[in-house]
Amino acid sequence: MIATLTGKVLSKGMDKAVVDVAGVGYEVFLSTDGVVRMVERGEDVFLYIHTNVREDAITLYGFLEEQEKELFLTLKTVSGIGPKLALSMLSGMSVGEICQAIINGDIKRLTTLQGVGKKTAERICVDLKEKVAHLSFDAASASGTNVSPMVTPGSVASDTLSALTNLGYPDQIARNALGTVKKEMGELLYNELSLEELIRNALRILA
Predict the structure, then answer these.
(1) Any residues with CB less than 8 A from the CB of 52 and at least 6 apart, and which?
(2) Which residues pair with 177 in a beta bridge?
(3) Using CA atoms, how far apart are residues 78 and 56, in angstroms rounded to an integer?
(4) Is residue 135 in a domain?
(5) In the chain, what is the straight-line distance between the N-terminal and C-terminal CA atoms, in Å?
């Protein structure tokens, strides 16, 4: 089984990337957030890998952090959650946010994730509440895991976040893009950006 990959990024798509390892290209499926945060084409990347074997296919799922892989595998233990749904959940929220919602029994929050209905959310909370507490702490402590800035209601950042989610970007992906813009420009310049400027810069990051 393949557990990790180290190589150069050959291409990036919406939900997958091709990584060249010693002349062999491996197609790896990632969360939308993982694709956004992955290095660009031609750069070196290290991925934690889960190899999913079925009778008709061998599929690789990749993760930038070990906590993300562990949560993915933990979610898959819940009845009705396969690898595609688990990966979709990681596209909608950060590891820390999913774990916190599970710990708090926040059914409403979990049902905002694509493909997660009320019954599935309830099963997740019952089955995993005791299993994800350490992941919540690890995700919050990990360096660079959460680059999302605070978004004050009524602010330019809040309006930008709303615009990006209306365009179809998951909430966490949009927040991470804002965090990247803030990191690039510095807090002072970031706070002076107009709505149009912030949207334009966020879309640049998301492109």
Answers:
(1) 58, 59, 60, 61, 83
(2) none
(3) 23
(4) yes
(5) 33
> Are residues 186 and 165 located together in one domain of the fold?
yes
Query: Residue 174: what pLDDT?
Result: 82
Task: Identify any residues that bridge with 53 across adjacent strands, giving them in sequence order.
Answer: 58
What is the band of 144 on the pLDDT scale with cuts at 50, 70, 90?
very low
Q: Please check whether residues 71 and 132 belong to one and the same domain.
A: yes
pLDDT digits (tens, 9 = 90+) for 16-69: 999 999 999 999 999 988 998 899 999 999 999 999 998 888 999 999 998 899
Max Cα–Cα distance, the chain, nearest Å: 55
Distances (CA, A) of 133 to 62, 72, 83, 102, 104: 23, 14, 21, 9, 10
In tens, the pLDDT along 178-205 reads 888 887 888 888 889 999 999 999 998 8
- How many structural domains compose the chain? 3
- CA dist list (Å): 140 to 12, 181, 206: 27, 21, 23
How many residues belong to the chain? 207
